[in-house]
Structure formats: C-alpha cells, structure tokens
Backbone:
DNA sequence: TAGAGCCTGGACAACGTTGTCAGATGCGGG
DNA sequence: CCCGCATCTGACAACGTTGTCCAGGCTCTA
C-alpha cells in the first residue's frame, strides 16, 4: 500500500507521467506519446481511452524531458539592460510577439549595465540550451560567446554591436540621429550647444557624441570642453552637469540630451530655472507633446528594433544566413517646440 | 574515422557532454559531474585534469538534463498583460531581481488581456515545469490551475485576485485609493465628477469604480449615468468619453481616471480644450510633475507589488505557507495641482 | 604486517520523453 | 483455410545529467 503510494510520487510533487497514463488506459507508453503529440496511427477508440486517462490523472507533458530528447527548447533568451526602462518594455514585448509566432517562450534577464552580469546571464541561458539569444550588450568583449555560437546558438545583438566577435546586430542610427538633432539646433541659430550623454564605452553613447561633434564641425563651431558631459547617468549628476553648463560665464543656449533619462532630468532643470533653453533629446518620451514647450526629440523605434532582431534570429534558426549582417534603422526627428527655441540674447 | 566524428556530434550542434570530458581527462563520468558541481572528493590533480578538458572542449553543462534529473528548474514564470505598459516594466524587473537572488531565471509572457492566451501561457510554463508562477490574471476562472498547484507549482497572483480558486494574491488598495482620490476632488468643491475606467470584469477596474461610488455616496452625491464610462480602454474611445462628459449640458467639473492610459488621454483632451478641469488619475505617470498643472494621482508601487509577490512565491517554495493570503499594499495620493483645481463656476 | 577505516573514483540506474523497429492483429483474396 | 499486406501497438534504447553504491588503494594503528 505504502509501496503503491510511493510509486506514484515523483519529484514534481506527484505528477503523473506518460507511464501512469499508459497503465491507466491499459496501453503502451508510446501510444500515449502518440496521442499527446497528435501522431497518426491510433484508433479512435484507443485515443479516447488515452484521453480519458489523461483527463482523469491531470497529466501534462513534461517539456523538460521532451527538450532533452529533441534538442530544441523552443525558448529564446533576451538579455537587456533594465526591463524597467520605458525604452526596453516595448522592445521586449516585440521580441516576445515574434517568439510567440514561432511557438517559442521568452526568458528575460536584466544585466543592469554590468558586463559580468551580462555574461553570467548569457551563459546561464546557454546552459538552459535556449535556441537563440537576443542580447543588448553591456560589455565590450563577447568572445566568450564564440563556442556557443559555433555550437548552434543563434545570436543577434541589438542596440549596440557585439565586441570582438562577428555577429548579427540591429541598431538605430545613433550617429545620424544625433547629427540631425544637433544640426536642427544649429539651424535655429544656436552655436553654444551642450551635450550630456552616457559613458562613451557604451556604443550608442559614443556614436551620439560623434554625431554631435560632426554636426558642430560641419557648422564650423569649435566645441569647448565645458559643453560636454560624458558618463553621467544618475539623475543627480545629470542635474549638476546641466546646471553647470547653463550657469557658466558664457552658458550654452541649447542642450542635446543623449538618452531618455538624461532628457527627463534636463527638462526638469530647465523648467526650474525659468529661462528658456533649447533642448533636443535622443529617444522619445511619453507625454513629451504635452509639456510646454513640447520636447523635440530624435525618436528611435524600440519595437522595430526588437522585432527586426527577433525575426533575424528565427531566420538564423530556420537555416539560412551564415554571414553576419549589420542592420541600421533610421531615427526620426520630432519637432515639438523645445528644439525650435532661438538662442537667448 | 567517420565513426569517431559522428560520435562527437549530437543534436545540440556538437556540444561536448560530460562523457566527452571524462574520456578526454581519462576519468569517470561521475568525477566530471563532481568537479562541475563543486562536490567534494576529488583530488586537486584530478580536478585540474578535468578542468583542462572542460576548457579545451568548451564544455557547458546541459541544464535541461540536470532539470530532468533534479526536478527543480530554477525558473519561474511571470504572466502579465503587456510588458510594454510602463506599469509592468518595473513590476517585472522587481520579480526578476528576487528570482535572481534565489538563483532562478524569469520566463516572461504577455496575455494581452486575453483569458485564453493567459491560460495557454500558464500551461506552457507548467509544461516547462517552472517552479512557480506569478500571474497577473486576465481571465476570471483559474480552476485550470488547480491540478498544477496541487502538483506543487507555487503560485501567486498580483494586481488582481484569482478567479474561483483559493490562492495567494498581492494587490494595491484600488478601492481605498479611488475613494481617497474622489474624496479629494469632493473636498475641493466638486460634485459633478466623471469616472472613466476599464471593463468592470477586471477586478481593479471594478474596485476603483466601487471606490468612486462609495466616495460619492459618502458625500451624499447622486451619481448620474452620463458621468461614468466603463470598459473604454483604447485612446480613441477614452477621448470620446471624456469629451462627452465635458460637453454635456451640465458637464462634469472633474474627472477621475481609472488607470495610467486613461489618465494620459484625459490630460490630452483637457489640454486641448483650454478650460481647466480638475483631474485625479490612478497610477503615477512619468513627467506628471512637469505638466502644467501637475497631474494629481493615486500612485501604486508597481515594484513593491512585484517584489512582494515574488518573495511570497519563494517562501512557498521554501516550504512553509499553506494558507493562501491576500496582501493589500496601500496607495498614495500625490497632489500636484490638477486635483486641486476648483470647479468652474 | 594485518586489519580497520578513510578517501577517491567509477559503474550503473534513473529522471520522462521520443525514435526505431519489430510484433500483433485484422482483413481480404486465392 | 492460409497467406500476404496494411494497420496499429508496444518494447527498448537513447537524450545528458545526478544519486547510489561499491571497489580499490591508501594510511594508520595494534
């Protein structure tokens, strides 16, 4: 009796297995497998008996075992910086939709912009044998991924390119977008334009800085050191940087903000100071149109980034595509007012 | 020769297994396992040989097989409505952090507010044998989860309670928050107050409506039909609803918005009309403090919801907790201006 | 030096599924 | 009545790992 009880208890609580279903239905193990997977070659009567047994026992196939046998997990991993950042929510959702369309589940992880944590996450995902990876890299050396990619893990980088390996990557045109944004300010008469951005070791930050420099250079403006603030990322430091630029003896008359978080803080600072200062931000932000003035931004399409990357990933998995490619999506300048303010006299 | 080659190729590309490592290091299979898992009982010299073989072959343990053997997957599932919604980003991130602290990975899925899709997702996660589930329910009948929970899948519902089953749930105090918000408007002299919210079949929407009704009743105000708009969710319909309320012969002088998306649209409508209308919204929104007037909101702490739920989940997994509990987190009224506008004469 | 006890290493089964293959069954025709 | 064929079914191995258990070699003590 205790014997019987023990036999039905396994490590997953006491989930029935195909064996249990087979026993109850009075059929062989493989027949249950056939029914569960809708394979042909089962008489309606047998199928009914099996279905009843499944129902009665509450059987649910163990995909872990299935995965082990089949070799494909039907899951992909997404490693991004911070799921709480409004930029990554839509990106993640877009990846998920594509995965869903391919019958795959999405495992999500945040690297918190820490290269070590990125690697740890990626390798954990590889150990799970995800079929593919979409990575928004935090680090700049991804050689640790080479064995995995050789072993068949499809990999696409998004938002920033991979470091020191050759891999697919989907990017926004950070350089072009920043250049356009800064040129927009210049076209409205500004010459002393500040730039506040993230650490230049982050590819997008470096590219946007390059766009800023290029636009300035093209206009024949020499950039002064005090106009640029790099590597500031937390609101408090962004605030200080903005205030310094705006309070200098010859203050900047316009600011280009390198990403959504910077933009938000700069908007705050400007609002507090009362004096109008022109502003163009990289990344669109919600409600930007309702502020007075509306915030002019260089918008990138996060969902499109995610979708494009995921589609590319599944194309890798479906067979083709040996040559890694770099796909660049355009940005869009959205004028709403803040970028069209003329320089203070 | 072909024989040898074939032997090293398995279904995962050609990943080495512990067997391969063992062969190369000239030790037994189990010894490799011991090294990989840091188990005691291996001489330093043997360990070194094994490590070298692992390095040379690029071996990475197959967690699928491990999971099958051990019964725990060290992964939990999170089913929410839409990862792109700024409310769920921080929630998801909070769950992820807790999972990470417990060495677990997070599998994410969006139900798109579709009960069928929710069930499909949940069952897919159960088939993967996730150790636990955090669910923001879309449907109102979760009896399909009973066998899973009996089988030992830890389950916590968030934001809305489970339907027709007894399960842990972590909520914000929607009723109290809405009542406070509406009472705030009443305290500022309003009597004709509109309510725009989601479908009442969604628990939070129903509770917020109840809070609205209660506050009105407590103030002795009889609510007119035209003041309430339920089940509108897409921006276009919210817009129409708001405009109707504000253009009626005896228009409402204040609006209570039932969630973040409604609030945003109502802010737009009010801004376009020029006439000041009082507004209190449920859920905080970014930049709400920078609008003129600032948007007064009833804020809930999405991260706290996620964290609390995840911690509860792992406490379930760690053994204790048989009695399902309902945990309600308080909301916070943040006054910023829009809720303090007096009624138009 | 023999025996006890400890430490290291390896053979083997098991986890729950799927693929292979061969056996059983039923049916029609010669 | 038996043979051949098609259809359905089940036994068995394999996926890559971990848990159990035992063998062999070593040290230490009497």
Residues:
């Amino acid at each position: 009796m205790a014997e019987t009880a023990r036999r039905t208890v396994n490590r997953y609580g006491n989930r029935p297995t195909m064996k249990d279903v087979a026993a109850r239905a009075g059929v062989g193990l493989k027949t249950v497998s056939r029914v569960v997977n809708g394979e042909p070659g089962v008489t309606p009567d047998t199928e009914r008996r099996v279905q009843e047994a499944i129902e009665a026992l509450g059987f649910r196939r163990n995909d872990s075992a299935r995965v082990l046998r089949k070799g494909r997990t039907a899951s992909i991993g997404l490693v991004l910086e911070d799921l709480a950042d409004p930029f990554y929510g839509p990106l993640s959702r877009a990846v998920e939709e594509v995965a869903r369309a391919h019958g795959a589940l999405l495992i999500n992880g945040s690297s918190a912009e820490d290269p070590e944590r990125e690697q740890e996450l990626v390798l954990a995902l590889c150990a799970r044998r995800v079929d593919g990876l979409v990575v928004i890299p935090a680090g700049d050396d991804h050689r640790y991924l080479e064995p995995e990619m050789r072993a068949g893990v499809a990999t696409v980088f998004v938002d920033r390119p991979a470091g020191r390996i050759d891999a697919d990557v989907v990017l926004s045109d950070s350089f072009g977008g920043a250049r356009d944004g800064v040129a927009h300010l210049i076209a409205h008469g500004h010459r002393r334009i500040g730039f506040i951005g993230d650490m230049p070791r982050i590819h997008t930050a470096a590219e946007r800085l390059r766009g800023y420099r290029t636009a300035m250079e093209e206009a024949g403006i020499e950039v002064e050191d005090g106009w640029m603030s790099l590597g500031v990322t937390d609101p408090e430091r962004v605030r200080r940087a903005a205030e310094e630029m705006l309070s200098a003896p010859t203050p900047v008359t316009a600011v280009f903000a390198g990403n959504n978080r910077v933009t938000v803080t700069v908007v705050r600072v400007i609002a507090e100071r009362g004096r109008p200062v022109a502003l163009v931000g990289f990344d669109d932000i919600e409600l930007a149109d309702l502020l007075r003035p509306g915030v002019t931004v260089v918008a990138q399409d996060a969902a499109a980034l995610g979708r494009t990357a995921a589609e590319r990933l599944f194309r890798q998995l479906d067979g083709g595509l040996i040559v890694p490619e770099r796909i660049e999506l355009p940005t869009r300048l959205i004028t709403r007012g803040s970028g069209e303010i003329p320089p203070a006299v």
Remarks:
- The two ends of chain B are 94 Å apart (CA to CA).
